[in-house]
Amino acid sequence: MGFGRRILFAGMAVAAAAAAMPAEAQKSKDELRVIWRNVIANVDPYFNGLRDGVVFAHHVWDHLIERDPDTFEYKPGLATEWKWVDDVTLDLTLRQGVKFHDGSAFGAEDVVHTLNYVSDPANKALYQRNTNWIKKAEQVDGHKVRIHLHRPFPPALEFLSLPVFIFSRNYTGPEEQNRRPVGTGPYRVASIEGGKEYRFERFADHYEGSPKGKAKIGKVQVRIITDAATELAELLAGRADLLWYVDADQLPNIQRQRNLKTVSAETMRIGFLSLDAAGRTGAGNPLTKQKVRQAIIHAIDRKSFVESLVQGEARVIDAPCFPTQLGCDDSGAPKYAYDPKKAKQLLAEAGYPNGFKTQLMAFRSRTWTEALQQDLKAVGIDADVQMLPVATLIQRFQKGETPIYQGDWGSFSINDVSAIISSFFKGTEDDYARDAELKAWLDIADNSNDTAVRKENYKKAVNRIMEQAYWVPLNTFVTNYAHVGELDFRAYKDEIPRYWVYSWK
Amino acid sequence: MLRFAIGRLGIAALVVLVVSVIVFGLTHVAADPARAMAGENATAADVEAIRKAEGFDRPLPIQYAEWIGRAASGDFGRSYLMKEPVIGIVAHRLPVTLTLGVMALAFALCVALPLGVLAAVRQNSLLDRFALAVAVLGQALPNFWFALVLIVVFGVWLQWLPTSGADSWEHMILPAVALGYYATPALMRLTRTGMLEALGSDYIRTARAKGLLPPSVLFKHALRNAVIPVVSLAAVQFGFMLGGSIVIEAVFSMHGVGYLAWESIQRSDLPVIQAIVLMIALFYVVLTFLADLLNGWLDPRLRVAGA
Amino acid sequence: MTIAPIAAEPAAPSPRTLMWRRVRAHKGLMFGIVVLVAMLLMALAAPLIVPHDPYTGALARRRIPPVWHAWFYDHPRAGWTYPLGTDRLGRDYLSRLIYGSQISLLIGFSAMFVSGIIGSTLGLLAGYFGGKVDMVVSFFVTTRLSLPVVLVALAVVAVAGSSLIVLILVLGLLLWDRFAVVMRAATQQARSLDYVAAGEAIGCSTSYLLLREVLPNVLNPLIVVATIEMANAILLEAALSFLGLGVRPPQPSWGLMLAEAKEEIFFNTWMIGLPGIALFLLVLGINLLGDGVRDVTAPENRN
User: Fold this and answer.
1) Cβ contacts of B265 on chain A, cutoff 8 Å
2) Which of the other chains make 3 or more beta carbon contacts under 8 angstroms with chain B?
């Protein structure tokens, strides 16, 4: 036994040594090699919804207002000052001396053109919600801009500091932007290769006083590798410096490699189950009964789910929103402990002592969904699981074909519950509750500028959702990063790695 | 021969037409183009607006006629996602997949033909057994599994070859081996079977009896006959590689047409799916047409039977 | 050539006995038969022989390594309770492997059957009748060939969902081309043989000729193709699983188990190795069986 063990260990050591050998010192080349998982259809942030695209945009373009990634405070970006004239009018004073990557000077025309272009429905920006609150932007003078809103929009500053990037006055739409993106951000795009590689170079003229600061690493190469195992191979073979969305189960093994480190950080994304309370998949189906929905929450061992599968800093949540979001107050809402007995009892009371058959559709992780399926099975609910590609699934979800939908939502990193609850419970096709009273509270909260009013009404909404168990809030997400030891890396809560901050040790 | 060729050409054209109907029908029945175009977070009103604006509310045959009319002139519309003309996107990705396919087929033939012939000539020898082992192994390994093993061994442990991307010919080696190895067994088996049959046939025996030297018997008569089904299969396999390189492209992160197709399926980017399937169909048709001609030339008996 | 002096062999063995002798002498064939029969028995007896429920696990006992990790690495959790370890949901790996044989075999056999019937019928007709029939069948075949298998299968499964029936039908309807192509070529060659022509000349009925004269003569390539396609169906299912569209949870297929464990390939090789070996053995068995049958029944072996 001892001999065999020694031989095996020797073999492992050789393999591990080979695996952890850094190919070359990237430090001397001053180039950070990053791998992304998804192909960005179009790098124009108004025309893609992928997280990778958001990361791209934060490096190349700037916002009028920047949000501090740690404190979530607003800081002067391209605008040095901003002032609400009234509920629907915002005045901004622009920074002077800002340059675009092509050397042209930044001014009010750029802001006005960008905002008017992306808020025009005719231009078909992908996420209308991000811009459809803007009625019109107008130039007051060379360095002053006024934004008119359609209606009071409390999270306006949050939107201006996240999805609303400022392009140049020469912007003509996504097709051209995808070819030659020009911005003011800390990195300029050196080359774009058909969704497979992006190269960035430090933009030396990134404006002074930027809250982002100037980039420390000279060059960034981003490659798109879609297979998780291949991606890991690149890191192990020393052909990549930074990965993200690494499988949590591999982290301890990666950590054990010489010269590799891992970071696991909580993000604003939450996972949930949406239950068909409104009977959209069939009137009178079991899920339309409150007790059945409550039974489902009791049936799921969310603590084990989080600890064993999601892992890291992930937490169980008891409200349909991320805990730091404004209005995410679960203090009055019922808490549902893991209690299969109670779940069975509730099912019996609802008229399903032997459980029932239903469908559970998901896209993210087969393992995670199977864990839920297993828990449901234990109380007698036989859920047929279908794993579908995300686009197909969302289409079916919106058509009203998903009895139980396992989804997750990152709120575009917006620290306000309107970015999540108001997206799913206001009578749109994402709404499987169709609760008029709930919608009325949300309308009040969404359209008020009074924080107290907003908080009160969002709290009512959270209470109602949890009482009625329209959703099963599952967990907060973590993003797992793996990187080479020489990289001074840190993760951020808003799920946006900032390459301009990183440096070589 | 001309009549034979014209007949095959007619079939080929008809095939492409039928495939276009199937593709258009499948994509329009399977997914709602307006919704697919609207994106993931669109409202019902957005979807309806797009349906009207793009004419998706018109009868399918009219939409089909319009689509195929434009497709004939190379215009497959715009990608819903990338907002760019489909033809440009596909053309940009095509070289990767074609190079991969050609290299994989070359690899497969280089292994399959010599091994197949030798295995037949030295039937039941050690060599035959080795060839059989190659065939059996190749068919028994899932190609993505084999690909991952190649990555672990040559990419991570030995660090001889790059494991992802398609930037140089070195990047192509592992994917071509992974894709080609899978096609090898079928080609080799067929070569061997064909050779055995040819060697056992009367005219070879006669040729042997006449005292002709073995190599000329082998290459002039036996191989020529044995190669007939192999040519058909090689054409089929090449087509299979173009359409089937999805998995390999995914593992080695090569941004070719196969992977583009998979992305488009996942995101319901219908114009891209349509264009790719139709384009691959065209490849198949041209290849089988050429293979048929070659077969007819190699074996006059087929020409009579086929015409 | 050799005219055996019949009288000199007192108890001439019957053709059946001769065949059986050849079968037993063929190691590959015997291996194929043994593997396939063993796998079939395992699949059928699965509920009786599994040590644990393959569908339910517990997260507390997830990713326990196989028993040999207790011997060689002193792994505290490995042991005989879960001899081949547990998966990412804490389900017994051995039980899932045993149940996985059901799914993989079912998909392989059914898809092969569906495609075999479609393909060989078309090929036989085309090869025998030639002319217009051949044109029509050629048309079908070319149309089918021009639809890329993996792509179409993916597209259909992505929309229709990946139930077992959908998988079998999709694979069956997509894999018949090789049957048809090989069958057609073989029938054409068989047909040009003298005795079929002779049969036609003396007025034998077409169906008689097809079934009695042509079919037996094209059986060999057919068997080779059938084994190839069965293996193909099993491997294609694995590929679909790899791309995330395998059989529905909680059903285990070996292809799916492989795909699920692909990220473990660097550090927990057993997770991807075990289903890999199982799948490899099965496909190996099928292929050797096909080869063996071909060798044993091939005309050139009958002297």
Assistant:
1) 389
2) A, C
